[in-house]
Amino acid sequence: MEPLIALRGVTKSWGGAGSPLALAPVDLEIGEGQFVCLCGPSGCGKTTLLNLIAGLESPTSGAVTVRGAAVRGPGPERTVMFQESALFPWLTVQRNVEFPLEMAGVPAAERARRVERYLKMVHLWRSRDAHPHELSGGMRQRAAMARALVGEPSILLMDEPFAALDAQTRDVLHGELERIWLETRKTVVFVTHNVREAARLGDRVVMMGTRPGRITRDLAVKLSRPREANDRDVTTLAAVIERELKIEIEKVIREELDDAWTPAGGGLPGAAGRDLGGGI
After folding, report:
1. What's the predicted TM-score (pTM) here?
2. What pLDDT, in 10s, does the model give residues 81-99?
């Protein structure tokens, strides 16, 4: 079966011919309805990979496809949610969420139906007449989530959307996002450098290394849902992921010190496709 999203031999360089690769050849397939977390240290190409899927960047070589069709630019089946909510400060919550539908020419009655549905889904219907400055950071991100969902895309691309929030608010929004994903079964590609976030949310964790950016592991997560941040199984899985990423971070530090690199530990044993969490 053709994957929903496929990257075949994709590279990215920010310079001309002969420039170092920011992203080494990447092969990645993502199936319909999967929740995939891209996890790795700063500079490993997580956001670049997300932007290639979104059509905001073009690969230097290789191909990015959605449902077998080449990605040539942004499309309505793919919506991006960024770290900042980017709400229009002069519009109410309701008008912010409605705005992309209005730009797409969706009839008023359908706009009203969808806006109400998704504001209720993120528990902001009672705050629909508030302006962004009247909302907490978590509420603004929930409004941004409703705006991302209201166009009813099949793919939701999320670039560290909760990184700027405090831990308690982030945990609440993890639960909200998981609930929405279980309800809608949209395909989610979620960028994070937070290993606990990846273990908490993903049913796959694609781990990335840097210099150049590349995929180092693709881990299937077999933990039951819903999950809690303080679940023992989530904590155990996060520790496994962190140990693996620590090796990559140590490699970068040693390279910067012009020191020969050898891994501090044995890393994560077993094949790249092994299931994690299945026996926990």
Report:
1. 0.87
2. 998 888 999 999 999 999 9
